[in-house]
Design goal:
Layout (H helix, E strand, L loop, with lengths): L7 E7 L5 E14 L2 E7 L2 E4 L4 E3 L3 E7 L4 E8 L2 E9 L3 E3 L2 E13 L5 E4 L1 H10 L4 H20 L8 H9 L5
Parallel strand pairs: 1-10
Antiparallel strand pairs: 1-2, 2-3, 2-4, 3-6, 4-5, 6-7, 7-8, 8-10, 9-10, 10-11
Length: about 180
């Protein structure tokens, strides 16, 4: 069953070998379609696979797509919007939670829309360790380049009005 607008869902990130990587306790669903889920959270509890817990520091708008191999977290900070983009499997909804596989490659985008690619060494290590098929590695790098184009073109969650629109919508829901 797909979550409804206004529902709170858990977000679960896995690794390629099926092990849990990270869990966000809850995110409010702002838009829910079979191929797109936009959510929001603020100071949400996060559990790491090693048992550590921490809380996010700022409100965030999350963008998950079923059509691409990435997701985007838009963090609203006092000095602007920062984006943390995960190269990942398309999301699925399973047992009331949003789930995806995290493939290590990340892009961090700064408020001026400059960006850096992160964790290529971690990706390479896990690619060997978990035996990613060559076709998967090709898909992931192709999606990384697609994501770079989205940033450069200010497309999707990187468009100037995206975060403002969805954050304003989030604020209309009762805590």
């Amino acid at each position: 069953m797909f979550p409804k607008i206004g529902e709170r869902i858990e977000i679960q990130s896995y690794k390629h070998d099926g092990n849990i990587h990270r869990i966000w306790e809850e995110s409010m669903v702002l838009k829910s379609q079979s191929n797109l889920l936009i959510g929001a959270n603020d100071r949400v509890l996060v559990k790491e696979s090693d048992g550590r817990f921490w809380r996010t520091r700022e409100p965030a708008i999350t963008y998950f797509t079923g059509n691409y191999w990435f997701n985007v977290i838009c963090m609203i900070r006092t000095d602007g919007i920062y984006y943390y983009c995960n190269i990942s499997s398309p999301f699925v909804i399973d047992e009331g939670a949003l789930k995806y596989i995290d493939y290590d490659l990340d892009i961090k985008v700064f408020p001026d829309m400059s960006y850096v690619i992160l964790d290529e060494d971690e990706f390479e290590q896990h690619r060997k360790q978990m035996n990613y098929p060559d076709v998967l590695s090709k898909i992931l790098y192709k999606q990384l380049h697609t994501l770079e184009r989205w940033v450069q073109q200010r497309k999707g969650p990187f468009s100037p009005e995206f975060v403002d629109k969805w954050y304003e919508h989030y604020l209309t829901f009762p805590n």
